[in-house]
From TrEMBL:
Name of the molecule in the record: Glycosyltransferase family 8 protein
Keywords: Glycosyltransferase, Metal-binding, Transferase
CDD domains for this protein: GT8_A4GalT_like (cd04194)
PANTHER family documented for this protein: GLYCOSYLTRANSFERASE 8 DOMAIN-CONTAINING PROTEIN, LIPOPOLYSACCHARIDE 1,3-GALACTOSYLTRANSFERASE
Signal peptide segment: none
Domain of life from the UniProt record: Bacteria
Pfam families per UniProt: Glyco_transf_8 (PF01501)
Length: 282
């Protein structure tokens, strides 16, 4: 259906629990929307996919289980410490059916706390992608990464993307990614994000990080940068996507950040719902 919002997620089983919390928050704050969830993975079991299906069925959404073949996985670059699944977002044009024209990609370590449709309806102005840049107080991060990667654009975070999948099918090639990794492997810090910026930076439309990819570690930075305008009340009213970048993650016992409690509350809501559903089934 044309009115459905396509959401792409790519992960392994280790991120299944936070993915479910993310989907719960997406539904809670977009109750009138219908989503098609494109679950792209290489190793999740039928039981693990069924956990996601239980959620999407209850929400009236459509789940598309896109199990990437072993042959395709064998071609994707493998860098120590980073799962191959992270490249599937860039290569979604080679994985998703031709009927999919646009997707919103979301990392699993995210909460969606307001309406996401404006992002879905964003005018890409001819660009292939839309993304936010996490700058901190100044553009120092951009400058450092421009020197490191030889780029001229902002350094974009890959955790939230709007992707014109038709353009991605034409422009994003596995051979280009592999060549770049082989050539610059010694300078890559976050390989998929570095490759996104190195190869495709000029084809990315910048979107406001405070709204669409809020780094939960940087609350005081956002406040300072806006002369305290972006306080917690502003965030809860205006920010759509909270991104729990870095470590510890909010589900870790060591996490005690500004937004940890919010994540734990959504996690608790989900567990209560799952418990109720299980008791009804009995």
């Amino acid at each position: 259906m044309a009115d459905e919002i396509n959401v792409l997620v790519t992960l392994n089983a280790g991120y299944l629990p936070p993915l479910k919390v993310m989907l719960w928050s997406l539904h809670a704050n977009n109750p009138k929307e219908t989503f098609s969830i494109w679950l792209v993975h290489a190793s999740m079991t039928a039981a693990q996919v069924a956990e996601v299906q239980q959620l999407t069925d209850q929400f009236g959404w459509h789940l598309h289980n896109e199990h990437v073949t072993a042959e395709f996985v064998a071609q994707t670059p493998l860098i120590e410490r980073y799962p191959q699944e992270m490249y599937f977002r860039l290569l979604c044009g080679q994985i998703l059916p031709a009927t999919v024209k646009r997707v919103i990609y979301l990392d699993p370590d995210i909460l969606v706390i307001n309406a996401i449709r404006p992002l879905w309806e964003l005018d890409l102005q001819g660009k292939m992608l839309a993304a936010a840049a996490h700058r901190g107080m100044t553009k120092l991060v951009d400058n450092v990464n421009q020197l490191r990667l030889g780029t001229t654009t902002s350094y974009f975070n890959s955790g939230v993307l709007v992707i014109d999948v038709d353009q991605a099918r034409e422009k994003i090639k596995l051979a280009d990614i592999t060549e770049a990794i082989e050539k610059y492997s010694s300078t890559l810090i976050l390989p998929d994000q570095d490759i996104l910026n190195f190869l495709y930076g000029p084809d990315i439309l910048e979107i406001p990080e405070e709204v669409w990819n809020y780094d939960t570690r940087k609350y005081l930075v956002y406040q300072t940068r806006t002369l305290t305008e972006h306080d917690i009340h502003w965030v809860m009213a205006q920010t759509v996507i909270l991104h729990y970048c870095g470590t510890p993650k909010p589900w870790d016992v060591k996490s005690d950040g500004k937004f940890t409690g919010l994540f734990l509350n959504y996690q608790q809501q989900l567990k209560r719902w799952e418990t109720t559903l299980a008791s009804v089934a009995e």
